[in-house]
Every structure is written in C-alpha cells, then in structure tokens.
Specification:
Blueprint (H helix, E strand, L loop, with lengths): L2 E5 L2 E5 L8 H7 L18 E5 L5 E5 L12 E3 L15 H8 L9 H12 L12 H7 L9 H11 L18 E5 L2 E5 L3 H10 L3 E3 L5 H6 L7 E4 L9 E3 L3 E5 L4 H11 L1 H8 L4 H4 L4 H6 L7 H7 L3 E6 L2 E6 L4 E3 L2 E2 L6 E8 L6 E8 L7 E12 L2 E10 L6 E2 L1 H7 L6 H7 L2 H5 L10 H21 L16
Parallel strand pairs: 1-5, 7-9, 8-9
Antiparallel strand pairs: 1-2, 3-4, 3-5, 6-7, 10-11, 11-16, 12-13, 12-16, 14-15, 17-18, 18-19, 19-20
Helix pairs in contact: 2-3, 2-5, 3-5, 8-9
The chain binds flavin-adenine dinucleotide (FAD) and FE2/S2 (inorganic) cluster (FES) (2 copies).
C-alpha cells in the first residue's frame, strides 16, 4: 500500500522510501524544510513537528525519531505550515508571541520551539498555570537554543499556554487504520488488533517497534536496517489503563505523556519518576513496553515497577503468561521474552494501605538526561518495625535490581536513622557498580546510600502516605 499523509494542509501519497526512513529525512527531502536537523537523536528539538493522531490528540514530537510509515493517515504541521490551520492564513498565536517577545535570533531552533508552544497553546490544563509551574519547564525541556536565551521563549510560552485558540485545530480526527507498507525489500506493518499482531509475530519474526524513541537511534546512529518491523502503536488493547480494586493494568503501548497525566492521581510514585523522564516530545512517543523491553540497566521505569512488585503480561500466539518484573531482566540487555512474545501490559498490585513510596533519579542535569542512578523504595511498618520493604535501583548493576541483602538486613528493624545506617554496608554486597562517564563506581555507591537516607528523611518528615513532590530527595553522607 502507499502511505497517505497530510502535511501542512497538503495531501501527500508516499511510495518508494524505505520503511525505516525517518519522518525528518522525508520531510526535508520533500521540501518541508522548516523541520531542522540538529542532533538526529532526540536531544535538541530542532526537528520538532506537530502530529494529530486518530484520537484527535495534538502532539509535538521529534521527527528524527519517527519512522515515516508510522505517520500514515496522520495530519502533520511543520512551523512553516501553521498558516494552514488558520482560515485566514494568519500566524498562530504562538508564532506571534515569539515575534513580539523576541524569542528568535538565528532562527535555527525556532521551528521546534514554535511546535512545542503550539502544543502548549492547545493544552487546556495549562490555562492559569503559575509561572513556576514545572509543566511549563517540561514543555520546553526538549528544545535547545544557542543564541536567544530562554527567558523570551519562556515568556512566549507563558503568553500562550492553555489559551486554546478556537477554530484552528480540525475537530474530526484523522483516519487511523492498519498499515502494511513495503519498499526496497523492507516491510512495515502496524495492525490494529492484538490477535493480528501475535499472528504476524509468530510467522516471520519481525522486530517489534512502538514509539521508536530507542529503535530510531539504531537507524540514525548505528545505521542498522530492519527488514521487517511490526509496530504496536495502533492496537487499542495495548493503549488502555484498567483500574480494578486490587490492581492496575497499564497497556504497554500507551505513550508516556498519557501515563504521566493519569499517574498524577492514579499512581503518584510513577508520576514523580515520569516528571524527570526524557522531554515531553520524547514522552509523546516513548512507551512503557519499550522502556522495559530494551532492558537498559538505566531505564527509569523498571526501578519503580520493581518496588511495586509489578507483573509483566507477556502475550504470544500460544497464549499469555505473567512474569514478575524481578525475573524479567535476565542479564545485560536481556529479558525473559521468548521468540514470538511481546509485552502486552504491566499489572501493578495496589500498594497496601500505609505503604510509603519514593522515587528518585540522579543525572548530570535535571532535564532530559540519562540517569546515573535511579531508585524507588516501598516501605510499610507495623508496631514500629519494618514489615515490607522494596529497595529497587537502576544504574547499579547490569540490570535494574533490588537490593535484597539490604532489604533482609532491615526487615523487622525499626525505621530509624541508626538502624538504616547499620544496614547500609549491605548495599556493597548487593551491588558492585561500574565506572563510566556518568559516574564512578564510588559515586554510584554513595548515591545508592544517600538516596536511601533521603527516603528515610522524607518518610520521617512526612507521616502521611503521599510524599512531598520535591525535585530531589538526596542527602550527603
Ligand atoms: C532523547 C532521549 C531521551 C530519553 N530519556 C530517557 C529517560 O529519561 N529515561 C529512560 O528510561 N529512557 C529514556 N530514553 C529511552 C527511550 O525513550 C525509552 O526507553 C522508551 O520508553 C522506549 O519506548 P519506545 O516505545 O519508544 O521503544 P522502541 O524504540 O519502539 O522500542 C525499544 C525496544 O523495545 C522493543 N519493544 C517495544 N515495545 C515492545 C513491547 N510492547 N513488547 C516487546 N518488545 C517491545 C523493541 O523491539 C525495541 O527493541 C530516552 C531516549 C531518547 C532518544
Ligand atoms: S534533530 Fe535533534 S531532536 Fe531531532
Ligand atoms: S535562535 Fe539561534 S539557536 Fe535559537
């Protein structure tokens, strides 16, 4: 089949490019040059464009990390085509604000900033956001500017965030539907049902892809080719959140922005980690399933799920099985997934009343950075003694893992600074971390201890179950 896209108000029929062509490469080769190429790896935001999907949601995404067939049936806008939104062909209020507040100098970054400002304008929940609202920082966290300085851009963002200019966005969602696209000996398929995906997965093992925020790096940086790709992002069963009295089930293909919005109330400890996960354009594409399947030792969501005793629901043509996350990671970048299996969902038992949870990420800069160490802790006490404890870390070993010896040393003890300090040496038995450019082994060991001490301080200060939402919870030993 040919691909059908609407770009800047023009209908385009695409045949010929390889399925692993990035949206950015195709846009630029097709004359839509407002999307700029900076890093080609999701770090600078110069390539950010707007996409309206079949649910009608408007998302600012990094076009360097989107594969072209993923955009079949979607409406896209680059900054140069925003006039197509206005019946009178005028500037979008976000563009106007950038001009009036001097948000641009050389202009290289400007189309990307305009895209995230337009997205912000159409997010009603940002109306009346106070100037120090972290969601405004988050909106800009994926975009770099080397000349203007961020103050005028932040002012432009504040001028338009949540303003929801009427009559600009098409209200009828674009058509969705399955995709089956072949070109130059490569195939890309995006079925719309789980059953169909499982049949395809059993037939001719394709490489699974979801948001492509990892996989596109293989294409762009390592020049890897994928003869057959199976995308899960159009399968509604994999994008659902089901809340039951005893458990929560999170679809593996749900974009992290949606998980973040739900988790603010639904699971605050996950929300706290998602706040520091990548940038908003990354989270608009990245998924929970992709974050676990890539089995990165520094993936940020695994420690949270380890502390919550989550189960992974793995599906294949021959049925489903549930695997505790603690046994899912079998080695460095290896998982318990068998050929023909995919992660369909993550099931989280609801924490028992009285459980206190804290999640922490330590990286070299606060926004859009990879963790040196991430951690999540869960604690319950009865009659002054610890009865339930999960100490989960990322960045301390070849896989995300629990500090089981430290947990054992603390169970039954009082949750006091002295008992905790007595147990801290056990962390050295649990983990022998590596030296690398994100931190030395000694630094990581010290972080692991300090994060736990920080959790102790937080829980001591805050008797209530929900911890406060400070940016960091670390203390110096
Ligand atoms: C700029 C940038 C910033 C980032 N920041 C962070 C960060 O702060 N924290 C962090 O943890 N990660 C971060 N990442 C990594 C990445 O975004 C996440 O791991 C993301 O969750 C991957 O999801 P995806 O759907 O995009 O995966 P994809 O790229 O689509 O897939 C990744 C891998 O998982 C497999 N896969 C995907 N879904 C499934 C499934 N349902 N079942 C089985 N296999 C599957 C694919 O075959 C592939 O091997 C960042 C990446 C970039 C480029
Ligand atoms: S080119 Fe830098 S984020 Fe895409
Ligand atoms: S205006 Fe020059 S990079 Fe931002």
């Amino acid at each position: 089949m040919a691909l059908h896209l609407q770009v800047d108000g023009h209908h385009r029929v695409v045949e010929g490019p390889r399925p692993d062509t990035t949206l950015l490469a195709w846009l630029r080769a097709s004359g839509f040059t407002a999307a700029k190429e900076g890093c080609n790896e999701g770090d600078c935001g110069a390539c950010t464009v707007l996409v309206q999907d079949e649910e009608g949601a408007l998302r600012a995404v990094n076009s360097c990390l989107v594969l072209l067939p993923m955009m079949h049936g979607r409406r896209l806008w680059t900054a140069a085509g925003l006039a197509a939104l206005d019946p009178d062909g005028g500037l979008h209020p976000a563009q106007q604000a950038m001009i009036e507040l001097n948000g641009s100098q050389c202009g290289y970054c400007t189309p990307g900033f305009v895209s995230v400002l337009v997205e912000a304008a159409h997010r009603p929940e940002l109306a009346d956001a106070p100037a120090d609202d972290w969601r405004l920082d988050d909106q800009l966290s994926g975009n770099l500017c080397r000349c203007t300085g961020y103050r005028p851009i932040q002012q432009a963002l504040r001028a338009v965030a949540g303003s929801c200019p009427p009559g600009l966005l098409p209200t009828d969602p674009p058509p969705g539907g399955p995709v089956r696209y072949e070109a130059q000996g490569q195939r890309f398929q995006a079925p719309t049902s789980l059953d169909e995906a499982l049949v395809l997965l059993a037939e001719d093992p394709p490489r699974i892809v979801c948001g492509a925020s990892d996989l596109a790096l293989d294409v762009n940086l390592r020049h890897r080719r994928f003869p057959s790709l199976l995308s899960l992002e159009r399968i509604p069963e994999l994008r659902a959140i089901e809340e039951e009295p005893a458990r929560i089930r999170l679809g593996a293909a749900l974009p992290l922005t949606e998980l973040e919005a739900w988790s603010a109330e639904g699971l605050p400890v996950l929300h706290r980690m998602l706040r520091y996960f990548g940038s908003r354009p990354i989270k608009q594409r990245a998924t929970l399933g992709g974050n676990l399947a890539n089995a990165s030792p520094i993936g940020d969501l695994a420690p949270v799920l380890l502390a919550l005793d989550a189960l992974l629901l793995l599906a294949s043509a021959s049925g489903e099985r549930r695997v505790p996350i603690a046994s899912f990671f079998t080695g460095y970048r290896q998982t318990a997934l068998r050929p023909g299996e995919l992660i369909a969902a993550v099931e989280i038992p609801r924490p028992a009343p009285g459980t206190r949870l804290g999640a922490y990420k330590v990286s070299r800069r606060r926004e859009l950075d990879i963790s040196a160490v991430a951690a999540c802790f869960a604690l319950r006490e009865e009659e002054g003694r610890i009865t339930h404890l999960r100490l989960a870390y990322g960045g301390m070993a070849a896989t995300p893992a629990r500090a089981s010896q430290t947990e054992a040393a603390l169970l039954g003890q009082p949750w006091t600074p002295s008992a905790l300090r007595a147990a801290l040496p056990s962390l050295d038995q649990d983990f022998q971390p590596m030296d690398d450019h994100r931190g030395s082994a000694a630094f990581r060991r010290s972080l692991a201890r300090n994060l736990l001490l920080g959790f102790q301080l937080e829980t001591a200060r805050h008797e209530q179950r929900a911890l406060h939402a400070d940016h960091v919870g670390t203390v110096i030993l």
